[in-house]
Amino acid sequence: MITLSRNTFRIAEMVRASFPESLIVAGGPLPTLYPEHYKQQFDAVFQEKADLGFPSSVGTSSSKAFHAKRLQELPLDTYDGLFIQDSDLSVNNPHIHYKEKDIQSFPLPDRSDFDHALIRKYGFRRMERRPLLL
What is the pLDDT of residues 41-86, one digit of tens each? Predict the structure, then answer.
């Protein structure tokens, strides 16, 4: 995972260079554990499970308000697990630990248009390994 962080930071820099007004958000295991490591490259970090917090933040914002320079216009205190720390704004909302029954109610992601076979083939070829069948 740590090696993925380097690429994540590079992608964030490329997005920032191409779309400087964009709001760049991180989430996942490492940003949850070390949100302060992500504060320079990302405008916001969603800690823990953002399955509900992040979609609700996008859904409640207007397209005009949802970019980096206008974060203050959003109801930031309502987003569970949100971490923002820069010179103008500091937010560190507690994150929710969902119960199993809540997690079971979350919708499964739709990955029907993703070519899993192609990515497996490319990944194994790149790693020069064959798949392990159990």
Answer: 999 998 876 666 666 666 555 555 566 777 787 888 888 889 998 8
Give the span between the Cα atoms of 36 and 42, in whole angstroms. Answer: 10
Strand order of the β-sheet with 25-27 is 25-27, 44-46, 82-85, 90-92
Name the domain count of the chain. 1
* Residue whose C-alpha is closest to residue 49's, from 99, 7, 113, 117: 99
Is 0.70 topped by the overall pTM? no
**C-alpha 105 chain-centroid distance:** 21
Can you give the residue range of the structural domain that contains 50? 2-108
Look up residue 93 and give its DSSP letter: P
